[in-house]
Design brief:
Blueprint (H helix, E strand, L loop, with lengths): L1 H5 L23 E5 L2 E5 L3 H8 L14 E3 L7 E5 L5 E5 L25 H8 L6 H11 L35 E6 L2 E6 L5 H9 L8 E6 L2 E6 L2 E6 L3
Parallel strand pairs: 2-5, 7-10
Antiparallel strand pairs: 1-2, 3-4, 4-5, 6-7, 8-9, 9-10
Length: 237
């Protein structure tokens, strides 16, 4: 679901473009995916929490529908997604933990506040995903800032060009993206960085990639297959 929010933006977006969560990609962070807990290590922990969490000061759709704040007395922001039970932690600490200091009081919705009618409407409109498709799309989110330390590829938050790379072609710095599909079949097209081949390299890397993903080139399109699911990487929208 987070992939649908971050990777849909612009006039051709498929879903969740009204949440403005594509702007998460302009922040710099380290992603530490854990079982049912996506940890984002960043200097902008409070800003990222504010974009994800609905609250009394903003419309329900300007957030990730169903996300709530857990009342932990900590300086890390610990969030839970009520429909799925998945968690997100945003923190400034490099080890992914909090420091024990309370965060400022905000008007964000807490875990004891149920799903609103508007949130339910948005959630009901989301496309069905198979378990293999969920894993494949989650792999996109957890690699938003992944890069090869040797410099051969970099994702750059879906916005920044890879450093120290000479290419004949350039990409837009815009945010036009479309992640669409249903069930096992998905397609991702975008105009900005990263280069499509860099995304394929990140997801298929023997150590940093998604294990058991298969790369199937077909003309200008590259298919990434994982189990029964397929993600087609399209060069540009």
């Amino acid at each position: 679901m987070l992939a649908l929010a971050v990777l849909n933006c612009g006039k051709d977006a498929a879903w969740l473009s009204e949440t403005c969560l594509y702007e998460l990609s302009v922040y710099t962070f380290v992603v530490s995916p854990r079982q049912d807990d996506l940890v984002l290590i960043t200097h902008a922990a409070d800003n990222i929490a504010n974009r994800l969490l609905p609250g009394k000061h903003k419309s329900d759709v300007l957030c990730l529908p169903g996300m709530r704040l857990l009342a932990d007395p900590d300086d890390a922001y610990r969030l839970i997604h009520l429909p799925t039970g998945g968690r997100i932690t945003t923190t400034t600490r490099s080890n992914g933990t909090g420091g024990g200091r309370p965060y400022p009081e905000q008007s964000w919705k807490r875990a004891d506040e149920p799903i609103t009618a508007r949130e339910a409407e948005v959630l009901d409109a989301l496309p069905f995903m198979t378990p293999d498709a969920e894993t494949l799309l989650a792999a996109l989110t957890s690699r938003l800032w992944l890069r090869d330390p040797c410099g051969s590829w970099a994702i750059g938050g879906w916005y920044n060009p890879p450093p120290h790379r000479d290419r004949e072609t350039t990409r837009s710095r815009g945010h036009s993206r479309r992640l669409s599909g249903r069930g096992d079949h998905w397609e991702l097209a975008w105009t900005s960085y990263p280069y499509p081949e860099d995304l394929v390299a990140a997801l298929s890397h023997p150590r940093a990639g998604l294990q058991k993903v298969h790369v199937v080139p077909e003309g200008k399109v590259t298919h990434l297959r994982y189990g029964t699911a397929q993600l087609s990487v399209v060069p540009a929208v």
